[in-house]
Amino acid sequence: MRKFLILSLIFIFSIPELGAWGFFAHRKINRLAVFSLPPEMIGFFKSNIDFITENAINPDRRRYAVLGEAEKHFLDADAYGDSAIYTLPRYWNQALEIFTEEELRAHGIGPWNAYHTKIQLTEAFKRKDIKAILRLSADLGHYIADINVPLHTTKNYNGQLTNQYGIHAFWESRVPELLSDDFDFFVGKAEYLEKPQLEAWDAIIVAHLALDSVLNFEKSLTESFSEDKKYSYDERGGISTKVYSRDFTIAYNNMLSGQVERQMRRSVKMISDFWYTAWIDAGQPDLNSLLKNPIELEEEKLENSKPLKVRDHEGMASNENPEELRKSFYRSMWRLE
What's the CA gap between 130 and 111, in Å, rounded? Predict the structure, then answer.
């Protein structure tokens, strides 16, 4: 156990956050979503806020270990054509009438999966299954935050097609890490969603329409920064790691007019809305009664013998070997020597 903890800490602090939004932002988004819930829900969720916060990153942990997990985090809308965000079927069964399941999974199933997870959460509320409620709430928060990331809506998910490798971690990890303390996260009360599946697709539309700015502004800004000004080095776990500089990060955020903040706020609000909607659809079960019998939740265990070869969204400021990233991630998460 001690070896695992040491290895995990070294890994987490030496590699800029892996996965959508980064570990830091996913945890922050899930935690903030709790405070928008109504009185009938907030007591239960606040009592378990540490679990919901820490386990916000579980879906990223599964990406290399669980077959079928990786495609739940994105949708390559441009793989289907220019107007795909408006024309793709909103419901999974409708999509299967046009495309094979293999085709759909190859290009990501983010919005369909978010809705499916919401349905699972509704059923967990009906059963008053504490473990399932908490695990699915944490997972749903992760998936919803993912579909609000512009780079999760494109084949060019890490700038690899435009010579901007590393922009993924820059937008969703470096900017929130450095600047989110100054973001305004007041989003108001959770609201019931009449058609949550359509809300998931609205998130994809908004995120995809922001994609040009994400890529073009970084490219434009790069022209005015020399290499030594664009990047700097941080010490993480005793390892010097190349990252985007503070000045470049601030300039990029200003050029985007707070786009990262808006998408984080949108994620927070949408997550609380989905949790609330799942609870309403379950018949508004009494969650306070569940607090009378607290349970201890075990750490999620995954048994895969070797990491799956799935595509890597993450990337450092410089081009790193994806296979080495995958191995490092797997070793730290699954306790290999």
Answer: 25
Alpha carbon 295 to its chain's center: 27
Structure tokens at 1: 């156990």
pLDDT for position 318: 42
Angle at 236 between CA 29 and CA 159, to 5 degrees: 60
**Which pLDDT value is given to residue 303?**
67
Closest CA to 165 of 9, 329, 286, 313: 313
pTM score, whole prediction: 0.88
Residue 91, token pair as written in the block? 């419901």
3-state secondary structure the chain: CHHHHHHHHHHHHHCCCCCCCHHHHHHHHHHHHHCCCCHHHHHHHHHCHHHHHHHHHHHHHHCCCCCCCHHHHCCCHHHHCCCHHHHCCCCHHHHHCCCCHHHHHHCCCHHHHHHHHHHHHHHHHHHCCHHHHHHHHHHHHHHHHHCCCHHHCCCCCCCCCCCCCCHHHHHHHHHHHHHHHHCCCCCCCCCCCCCHHHHHHHHHHHHHHCHHHHHHHHHHHHCCCCHHHHEEEEEECCEEEEEECHHHHHHHHHHCCCHHHHHHHHHHHHHHHHHHHHHHHCCCCCCHHHHHCCCCCCCCCCCCCCCCCCCCCCCCCCCCCHHHHHHHHHHHHHCCC
Question: What does the alpha-carbon distance between residue 143 and residue 152 come to, in Å, rounded to a whole number?
Answer: 11
What integer pLDDT is reported at residue 324 of this predicted model?
52
For the chain, list residues with pLDDT below 70: 1-20, 303-305, 312-337
Short-list 9, 20, 333, 11, CA closest to 176: 20
Torsion of CA 230, 236, 239, 244, to 10 degrees: -10
**Amino acid letter at 164?**
Q
**Which residues are within 8 A (CB) of 165 and not within 5 positions of it... i.e. 6 or more apart?**
158, 159, 315, 318, 319
What is the model's pLDDT at position 16?
A: 41
pLDDT attached to residue 314? 60
Instruction: Report the alpha-carbon distance of residue 146 to residue 132 in Å, rounded.
Output: 21
Q: Are 269 and 184 in contact (CB under 8 A)?
A: no
